Amino acid sequence: MVKVGILGVGTVGASVANILERNADILEARAGKKIVVKHGVVQNMGKERGVNITLSTDPMDIINDPDIDIVVELMGGVEEPYALVKKALENGKAVVTANKALLAYHRYELQEIAGDLPLMYEASTAGGIPIIGALRNGLTANHIESIQGIMNGTTNYMLTKMINEGALYDEILKEAQALGYAEADPTFDVGGFDASHKLLILASIAYGIDAKPEDILIEGIEHITQTDVAFAKEFGYEIKLLGIAKKVEHGVELRVHPTLIPASSMIAKVDGVMNAVSVVGDSVGETMYYGAGAGGEATASAVIADIVDIVRGNHGPMLGYKKGLEGGSFELLP
Q1: Percentage of the chain surpassing pLDDT 70?
Q2: pLDDT at position 183 over 90
Q3: Is residue 198 annotated as a catalytic residue, yes or no?
């Protein structure tokens, strides 16, 4: 039996606990061992979580429990989860995280701390889309020529409404907030920062680049107007917020910004809160990955896939490299 502790039993954490219980039989058959959640940690014990697991407010109840094999970190934030994940790894526990901000700033430190211990993070980028596994494993034979994708569902929903229904930015932002797609302070999404964190994670796997959000161009959708939308349509284009990584002669370009895309292209047809990522390899050509980029069940699906891989022993090096690239990693270009 493999015992799991969940740091952060919110929407995603509750879905992880419930899916592990609901699909226990098929998961045991696929993993080869029974997987159970022993403990969960929350900030507010008074809030109903809808789970059948033991809860407390102290993360050390999980970190220091010798019976827990895998720590699932779903707290959000950067420095506090970094300290907890570091301690869990030092205590010999495998870790699964969905925390893109944590990885945007500390992925290389955590890789060094983890060593041969599993540290998995499929759910950190594009929700339920298995893009991390595709880059680390499925496309390992390729030099990656480019990555471009819709990596934030909130902004894609807003732009879709602006393009298809003529909605104004301020109106659709309020609607997105009412639907729960955007936070009360939407800057992280509409400013492009969420997408930048995901892009940096993918770029590390593709190119071995250790860059922070402050090192790359980030532009959001706050200044997109109906005039921009109409201009794009007139010339056969649509506007999408893309995260772009592109290999060029002397290095790699990384950027997040609104982009004019031919209306006939596949990625232009990705609407609403859905995500899509295109990866071009030198051998395979273009591959496309599409699906739900957020939501409790979709993200939990990716978390549990990582848990099952750990139980099976299928984890490999965290960022996909057993040794350094010959000649060093690619240079990040301005």
Answers
A1: 99
A2: no
A3: yes
Same domain, 147 and 237: yes
> Would strands 251-262 and 237-248 be described as parallel, antiparallel, or unpaired?
antiparallel
Q: Which of 198, 246, 247, 322 is catalytic?
A: 198
User: Is residue 116 assigned to a domain?
Assistant: yes
Please work out, in degrees rounded to the nearest 5, the angle formed at the alpha carbon of residue 64 by the alpha carbons of 38 and 201.
85
Strand order in the sheet with 70-73: 54-56, 35-41, 2-7, 70-73, 94-97, 119-120
Q: What are 225-250's pLDDT values in tens digits?
A: 999 999 999 999 999 999 999 999 88
User: What pLDDT, on a 0 to 100 scale, did the predictor assign at position 278?
Assistant: 97
pLDDT tens for 271-280 read: 999 999 999 9
| pLDDT, average across residues 61-77 | 97
282 and 189 share one domain: yes
Residues 6 and 58 placed together within one structural domain of the fold = yes
Among residues 256, 138, 246, 133, the alpha carbon closest in space to that of 194 is found at 256
Residue 139 has, within 13 A of its CA and on its CB side, a CA count of 29
From CA 66, how far away is CA 74, in angstroms rounded?
20
Residue 301 forms part of a structural domain: no
Average pLDDT, integer, range 121-146: 95
42 found inside a domain: yes
Spatial contact of 276 and 149, defined as CB atoms under 8 Å apart: yes
Whether residues 114 and 188 share a domain: the answer is: no
- Residue 197 sits in a domain whose CATH number is 3.30.360.10
